[in-house]
Amino acid sequence: MSLIVRNRERFERTDVPVPSAHRNLIGAIVAVAALAATAVVVYLAWNRASLESRLGDSSLSDAVTTLAQYDEAGPSGGYAVSEDDISVTLLLTAESLDETGGTLTAARILSVNATQGTAALVNVPADLALTVDETPTTLAELFSSQGCAACVLQLGLAAGVSFDSVVLATGDVIEEAAQLAGSGSDNLVRSASGFLSKIRTNMDAAGLLAFAERLAAVGTANLAVSDAALVAEVATNEDGAAAETGRQTLDKTQLNVAIGRFVAA
After folding, report:
1. Are 140 and 126 in contact (CB under 8 A)?
2. CA end-to-end distance (rounded Å), the chain
3. Which stretches are transmembrane (predicted)?
């Protein structure tokens, strides 16, 4: 019996792989690497989609379209509407890009005159008086309660101006926007990811690059910066007489002069 056992052991195959701890470890490492690679791909795809969603914002596009249906302010005595190629952009700065509930920190109206090669930047106070649905409010309050899109329409009406584009940002991005000039729309998301993470706009990639080109052609150092001219708000009191409310609204004529839309007749 012992002889048979020895013979069997002598002829057992030696090419059969034997499970080892190293083999299991290598398999685990490969599995983890595959999961990590998948996670990276998913993250990059999600990040690209998130950045692309900052362009062509539908709510801002709708607000710009709605505002365009209203007549712009007409010039008063001594002024005429300029025939120059002027584009007007509303720049709003807030603590976040949330739809509502954010805090407005700055509002500016930027006009670029491609004909003259000039540009103007007008600061609008956040506590500017507005009246929405017969209810007194301010620009900052409207931004917090109804969001950026609501401000586009109401500020445009208060200014008597139609905005060609709107940019909501978490900081001053004028310099960064101008630096986009010369970029390609195909690789904009990749090349300007830092900039796009700070904004929401109604402009698509091509529109944003066209905006950058116009701004860069003038030069951000050459912006004519001013504060919006304000006038006392007047309303009818209980006696039916006109009286100041203690709030301030935009002087439409002087604002349109500041952005170059009105020129001396």
Report:
1. yes
2. 123
3. 25-46
| Beta carbons of 143 and 195 less than 8 angstroms apart | no
Q: What is the pLDDT along the chain (265 residues), one digit of tens a residue?
A: 444 445 445 545 555 555 565 666 676 676 666 655 444 443 333 344 445 657 999 999 999 999 999 999 999 889 999 999 999 999 999 999 988 888 999 999 999 999 999 999 999 999 999 999 999 999 999 999 999 999 999 999 999 999 999 999 999 999 999 999 988 777 687 768 889 999 999 999 999 999 999 999 999 999 999 999 999 998 887 777 888 989 999 999 999 999 999 999 9
C-alpha distances out from residue 95 to 14, 49, 106, 158, Å: 70, 22, 10, 24
What are the C-alpha distances in Å from 262 to residues 53, 91, 202, 229? 36, 21, 26, 14
- The DSSP symbol for 187 reads G
What is the distance between the alpha carbons of residues 99 and 168, in angstroms, rounded to a whole number?
11
Q: Select from 204, 163, 167 the least CA-distant residue to 66.
A: 163
Element (H, E) at 89: strand 86-94
The answer to whether the beta carbons of residues 51 and 189 sit under 8 Å apart is yes
- pTM beyond 0.85: the answer is no
**Looking at this protein, which amino acid is placed at residue 77?**
G
3-state helix, strand, coil in the chain (%, to 5): 40, 25, 30
CA distance 208 to 225: 22
